[in-house]
Amino acid sequence: MENLPSHKHGLRFNFGKNWRNYLKNLDKHKIEQAENSLQAMLRVRNLEGRTFLDAGSGSGLFSLAARQLGAKVTSFDYDPLSVECTESLKETHRKNDTAWTVTRGDVLDADWLASLGTFDVVYSWGVLHHTGDMRRALDNACARVKDNGFLFIALYNDQGAQSSLWKAVKYSYNRLPQAARSLLLWPAMARIWGPTIIKDALILEPLRTWNNYSRERGMSPWHDVLDWVGGYPFEVANVDEVIRLMDRKGFALSNLKTVFGGHGCNEYVFHKTAGR
Predict the structure, then answer these.
(1) Are 122 and 53 in contact (CB under 8 A)?
(2) Is 125 helix (H, G, I), strand (E, B) or coil?
(3) How far apart are CA 125 and CA 209, in angstroms?
(4) Which of 69, 74, 86, 145 is buried deepest, with most CB atoms within 10 A?
(5) Pair 128, 134: CB distance under 8 Å
(6) Are residues 186 and 247 in the same domain?
(7) CB atoms within 10 A of CB 10
(8) Do 39 and 131 lie in a common domain?
(9) What stretches of 119-264 adopt beta strand conformation (E)?
(10) pTM, rounded to two decimals
(11) Using one digit for the tens of pLDDT, what is the confidence trace for 205-250?
């Protein structure tokens, strides 16, 4: 399964299309929750006076959240539709804002990234593992963090054999014609959400978890499922290995939120020690 074609061979999930659909239901509550997420993980009240790089901006939600918290924001994405989504969100909420720049770029392009400069906060949530070369993408993101700055990333948790199985599912999903993808999507939905939905029903609170899901990060459960099943290229990382790797690069762990061995993303905030 590890020899399946990846980004280098052109097979890639259309993240931008999913984000465009997601933005149709974006509301004030979800924006506030995104702001709360940044505040909690970075342990700050605001980002006034700080620069913020959103590497793989997707819908643009967290770029907007960072800007609302006072940061000077640079957003980029590899997917043209994701760039359009971010630009649309900026147009709607921060029109003509010169402190927020949106562009298209590739986190694997070290020379292009270097042209952006360095930042107080480099943010890349659920992106680096979809590039086809997660290690190089992580190296490039690290290089954009200022001394005493922070790197906030989320990487898929390594579940061993289960991760290999999910990689095969994702590869197959992207190889199928659009009309046939539900053959994989609905069984995957049942696998991911079935036990939780049954549990909620048994305590006479049907769909409680589903309806409350967006309170965590402002993301809808349906769009997260689509991202999960379709998200290819796909790589995973072990928490301890990531922490050791980042320590060798001169980054100390500042905050950590894990999925406790389950599927999904572990969230890391690292502080770059000056002089290392």
Answers:
(1) yes
(2) strand
(3) 22
(4) 86
(5) yes
(6) no
(7) 8
(8) yes
(9) 119-125, 145-156, 251-257
(10) 0.89
(11) 888 888 887 665 556 787 788 888 999 999 999 999 999 999 999 9
